[in-house]
Amino acid sequence: MTDESEKDTMEVKRLRFDKNMDSNRKLLYKIVQLVCVFVLGIILFNIFQLVEIIQGTGRVINYTGIIRGGTQQLVKLETNGIPRDDLIVYLDGILEGLQIGRGQYNLDKLDDIPYQEKLAGLNAYWNDLQTEIMSYRGDPGNREKLIQMSETYFEMANDVVGTAEFYQEQKTKILTTLEQIMVILLGVLIIISLQQAITEIHLTRKNKELAAAAYFDKSTGLPGRLSCEERIWTPLDLKEGPYCMVMFDLNNLKWVNDSYGHSEGDRLIKAFADILYRLTNDHVFVGRYGGDEFIMIVKRYSQKKIEQLLQEIQLQTTQYNEKSEKLKIHYAVGYDYNGNSLQQMLEKADEKMYVNKKEIKDRQNVNSQIMI
């Protein structure tokens, strides 16, 4: 294999490595995206619950405030000789709803121990206050005590409101934190989406470069080994026949590489590739099959026209050699015509090419002995 061929192979390997890296990066992005989406789902679920809790706590605070003000109003009316049993029933209903949850006022039962403890104390004192109200109705002499108890109840209700507000504040802080985390995760998803798009572009470019490197020989510009294999293993279209498979092999290339360097060997390969390329058309395919091997697949040519094509190649090679002062192109050739498959024709053309190579070598040996 020449230096150029080695460079092409290394280029393909590099492109494949880069492609694998991009594929791994793409997989990692997908995993991170799935994790982010999963975490976002959990956060959104908790946010919805927190919003509902905060809204429910707001209703609790409002109705606790109603109890606070309603009790003050109730005592004021009672001390002015205006009994309000309906207001007592109303306040009873609110307190019951706050303790057990829902009820006729659709109130939430806050899941907070300090609040529940203070609410229980408020309810117990409410019962004492009602007893005192009933006692006042029978004996207005305890007016000061009733007013004092209402003031105490107001302070207790105020404390319950403050506890509920603190609970709401804590939930709001958690909600704010979750919203911040959600914003961060959304930012991560946006960044990953952009990176994924960039990786997708790189991957597409690498695929194109890899396809170009794999299917085309960079040093000669001819279709490479994969392109040749693809043609060879494609079933014959009998309507396009007859077919001919031609195999070329440059002679003494190893000697040229060893004696003059791989750059000179590559120059000969490129020169011969140019000769073959100039003869390509819709019916003639030429590709570099290996380091110094080329194939030509011809269709719709008669055998006589095939011979003329080979003569043209020999003529152009001779013209090149006459102009070249240093190194000459020498090659062996073999072909098989109108076979059953390109694979079989390739094997036969390869065998004939090696026979031709041996004949050339034998002639060279005979000429060398005559000169001696």
Automatic annotation (TrEMBL):
PROSITE patterns: GGDEF
Membrane-spanning parts: 27-48
Protein name per Swiss-Prot or TrEMBL: Diguanylate cyclase
GGDEF domain mapped to chain residues: 241-369
SMART domains for this protein: GGDEF
Coiled coil: none
Record key words, sorted: Membrane, Transmembrane, Transmembrane helix
Record flagged with keyword Iron-sulfur: no
Organism: Acetobacterium tundrae
Source organism superkingdom: Bacteria
InterPro entries in alphabetical order: Diguanylate_Cyclase (IPR050469), GGDEF_dom (IPR000160), Nucleotide_cyclase (IPR029787), Rev_trsase/Diguanyl_cyclase (IPR043128)
